[in-house]
Amino acid sequence: MKKNRNRKNPGGTDENTGNTGKSGTDGSGHGMTNGTGTLYVVPTPIGNLEDITLRALRVLKEVDEIAAEDTRNTLKLLNHFQIKKPLTSYHEHNEREKSGQLMEKLRRGNSIALVSDAGMPGISDPGHHLIGKVIEEGFPIEILPGASALINALVGSGLSTKAFLFQGFLPRDKKNRKEILEELKTEMRTLVFYESPHRIKESLGEMEKIFGDRQAVIARELTKKFEEFLRGSFSELLEVLKGGPLKGEMVLVVEGAEKQKETSYEGLTIEEHLLLVMKTGVSKKEAIKQVAGERKIPKREVYDVTIRESLD
User: Of 137, 215, 235, 281, which sees the most CB atoms within 10 A?
Assistant: First the structure.
């Protein structure tokens, strides 16, 4: 099991000892450990600039360089807080090439802050690739707490927060999107998705067909002046969208599936079991998977029955 080396916050307070100042750094607040620079994962506001933390501001001021998903957006943030630091772009189209360059800078002892356009880097964001490489190499890494759209939306939705599943953005490809929704159909945890304004209507329609008319919440423009939570069933939300398209990035929170009643399959043949499951409306592919799981037998064995008996 790999462990990342411990180090103190640059120029800050060590929570274990209470010591402050540059102790444990290279004297410039760079957070070096054995000559290796530290990667700081720094969340940025998702709309309201007042939501940035004092710690985030300090780190952004003290690192050698800032790797940003969109340097233009990040420059606006830095200018607002009068922070002048070198910026480099790090996004989905250059992540592999740029990761190597950033890793080399960390080896030389440079400290780097990783930021996204908004919120926590690494969540539906290319930052996860660099974070993985830093952990794999055993380099120092610090994850700062901060703004996250999915948490604001989940808590504000009023739906259960006891357990939830974050899916992120659904695939653009209709077939792949449908497959994922079919897999989530029986998921009892609250579901959280990121969605764009031009796809929200289509996604709600597909979910209504696959999940049934469940309760859901659209959270948009979070932390901004026109923040809005739209609550209702899929059909009710679709009626709202008939009044015109919504603007701004949004989070879709969906009620989890109801717990399925326990059913005894004792005494049923595989064929009978399959037919019973398929009557609930699931596809043959999903029925094969479910029957195989409940009987704890290979899917191939169940599939062979569908071929032999010509089940549709």
Answer: 215
